Amino acid sequence: MTISQRTSLVTAQVADRLGADRVETDPAALVKLSSDWSRMSPILQEKVPSGRYVADAIVRPRTEQEVADVLAMAYEHDVPVVPRGAGTGNYGQATPFTGGIILDLRGLDAIEVLADGDVRAGAGARMTKIDKVAREAGRDLWIFPSTKGSTIGGFIGGGSAGTGTIEHGTTSDGFVTELTVAPMDGSGRLLTVRGEETLPYIHAYGVTGVVTSVVVRTDPARDWVAVYAAFDSWDAMVAVHRRLLDLPVLPRLASGDEPALVPTLTTNVDLDPAQHSLRVIAEASTVAAIESLVVAAGGSVRACLEDYAATDLLSGMSYNHPVYFLQRAHRDRSWFHMETGGELYWTDADRVREVYDGPVWLHLELMGRGPLAMVVAEYVSEEQVLAGIPRFDEIGVGVHSPHQWYVDRNLELVTEVARERDPKGLLNQGKLTDHALVDTRVNIGVR
Ligand SMILES: Cc1cc2nc3c(=O)[nH]c(=O)nc-3n(C[C@H](O)[C@H](O)[C@H](O)COP(=O)(O)OP(=O)(O)OC[C@H]3O[C@@H](n4cnc5c(N)ncnc54)[C@H](O)[C@@H]3O)c2cc1C
Questions:
Q1: Which residues fall within 8 angstroms of residue 110, CB to CB, at 6 or more apart?
Q2: Any stretches that span the bilayer, and where are they (predicted)?
Q3: Is 369 a residue whose pLDDT tops 90?
């Protein structure tokens, strides 16, 4: 029997046990939910374009136990399953390479603030909603991504960093205290892991099990303010950027852009397109110190907005969003980006600009104790993009290619746990491969 035929057996069982409305096979919906935002990469756009790899059915569980039940049915018939949140991942990691079932988890959206202030949420709860509930309870989520409409399950399953990362690191750095997971082992059970044991499920694209609910860390809510500053040069901008780490309360976000990227940003603040733009989500008591730093570097403060919604707008211009804004503004040309990081952005950014021929534009973030940058340039070919990787290595700049779909964090641990939790290898097939063990950054190609 083909995967498609086996999927029909499973969906018939699901319809019978959970209700016919839990299954969808409409062709347009299948194509839509089988792709994600990998279209941001011209390389992935070519290799995993929307419509090339399509699931046979979408299944929509509403409770955590239903997730476990669906996985048990899929296990019995050897049907591949790909968990999916809002589908905003960048790497094609929610695309079902071998058909089967897309598990749409958006129905699991309960949110509860616990007695200690941390938040328990269903995997399908949106980060926007979780943040709102947390703030109403006087708490700040440790981190959330610039795509705030995404789900917590997807952020933990496939995301990494965002607002809050300067102080709290990535999704693997203590943000997650507890996960409930449905394994693909035929048991139909749910298991709960805590602390370090959560690591094999974070940024693992669901290959170690489907996360059904999470507990994430919060802090007492702070008074956050959106500060916009402008500078004549990159050097003046980074002179302030690096000093933000000396503030008594670390900023929640610190994003910078070169003039070429500034006009494409979505903002209600009057940004000067001829100047470098630095945007900081700062704790209110540190604003005066930031203003002094800006003036001392020869810059100017263009706006200081005091309501929380204004800081959200600023989050929406962080991490990969400026790359998307550029692509949206100049659709007549094709753009690619590389995710990079290193002190060179503060000391000699021109050396990074030399990695690629032609104009190279930089979007800057502060991640932990150092700078992170999206390097953006016009796309010519896959060879051109990949040729940059050894050059970044040579100049001591860390690089992660957003043009591949393999699991590339904690790979050995993830592989080991996946063997136990998914012995038949049915979860998100093609994302955990020996290929990735060779070199996760440069190997691109569906096996
Ligand atoms: C313009 C743009 C900007 C972005 N900015 C950021 C950013 O600032 N920081 C960042 O980290 N990411 C960013 N991303 C990537 C992505 O949007 C986020 O990581 C987002 O949180 C993913 O959530 P999602 O619900 O859309 O997940 P999906 O795309 O649906 O899934 C992501 C991965 O997780 C798996 N998965 C989904 N749900 C579960 C589950 N319950 N259990 C196990 N596995 C699961 C999927 O199979 C897939 O492999 C950006 C993307 C875009 C397009």
A1: 120, 121, 122, 125, 213
A2: none
A3: no
Pocket test for ligand 1, best of 62, 82, 84 (most atoms within 8 A of CB): 84
Question: How far is it, in rounded angstroms, from Cα 392 to Cα 244?
Answer: 26
SS3 label, residue 135: helix
What is the best residue among 45, 66, 71, 88 to mutate for testing ligand 1's pocket, by most ligand atoms within 8 Å of CB?
88
Does residue 397 have its Cβ closer than 6 Å to ligand 1?
no
Q: What residue's CA is closest to ligand 1, atom 45?
A: 157
* Ligand 1 contact via 164 beta carbon (within 6 Å): no
Are the C-beta atoms of 306 and 339 separated by less than 8 Å?
Answer: no
The DSSP code sequence of 270-311 is ---TTSEEEEEEEEGGGHHHHHHHHHHTT-EEEEEE-SHHHH
The CB density around residue 115, as the number of other CB atoms within 10 Å, is: 5
207-257: pLDDT as tens digits: 999 999 999 999 999 999 999 999 999 999 999 999 999 999 999 999 999
Q: Model confidence at 268, in pLDDT bands (50, 70, 90)? A: confident
Specify the fold of 224-400. Answer: Vanillyl-alcohol Oxidase; Chain A, domain 3 (3.40.462)
Structural tokens at position 27 = 């062709």
Domain ranges of the chain: 113-220, 224-400
pLDDT tens column, 129-170: 999 999 999 999 999 999 999 999 999 999 999 999 999 999
How far apart are the C-alpha atoms of 214 and 197, rounded to whole Å? 13
Q: Please give the Cα distance from 429 to 205 (Å, whole number).
A: 10
Give me the CATH code for the 113-220 domain, please. Answer: 3.30.465.10
Residue entry with tokens 């299948």: 30
CA distance 73 to 35: 24
Q: 103 CA to middle of ligand 1, Å?
A: 15
101-134 confidence digits (pLDDT tens): 999 999 999 999 999 999 999 999 999 999 999 9
CA-closest residue to ligand 1 atom 28: 87
CA pair distance 81, 385, nearest whole angstrom: 32
